[in-house]
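Tokens help. One example:
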Amino acid sequence: MIGYLVYFAILMLVPFLAQSKVKKTYKKYSKIMNASMMTGAQVARKILDDNGLFNVSIEETKGMLSDHYDPRKKVVRLSSANYHGYSAAAEAIAAHEVGHAIQDAEAYAFLRLRHKLVPIASLGDKMAFVFIIAGMIMGAMNLVLAGVIFMSFAVLFQLVTLPVEFDASNRAMTQLVSTGIINNNEERQTKKVLNAAALTYVAAALVALAELIRFASMFFLQGDE
């Protein structure tokens, strides 16, 4: 019983700590003006144009840290604070999202794989617990196995997301430095923003993997009885 309580506490604590780190880091560097005096939108546009991605547009979107790249519509969407902001945080996040656009243009393998996994991962995320719980209640191990398989696709999506996000951050740093948007003194703070954001994906992957291992273990242990 105590073991399960500790396990669930960890599942809740890891994402919470990661989110707290992101918010704390973002809050700190959103108050620091960047040296280039460019808004996030201007940073994104410059990097896109320097890489010949004139077909990729930039849009403002609502919400805090809702920034993302839409590969279907070829749009980099930046939250209002980052779209209009002149902060170090806005600069880093804008460059990161453009990193995804560059990945898309270069047909980056892990990004393509993640796109292909979206439908089945979404289905797996919705159906895994339905099958597992139904199987446990009915004593039908074949349903539990189906749930574990569904969950494995959702976990695979989370794991594939890691190299995609880390690569986008690496591209962001390269572009910010090579274009002269940031100076040497700003490299450290930019890395802190990018690294903090990456923690959320690492936390999500660890939690998803832990859940998969737990239910898979339950299936195999039950099968041995």
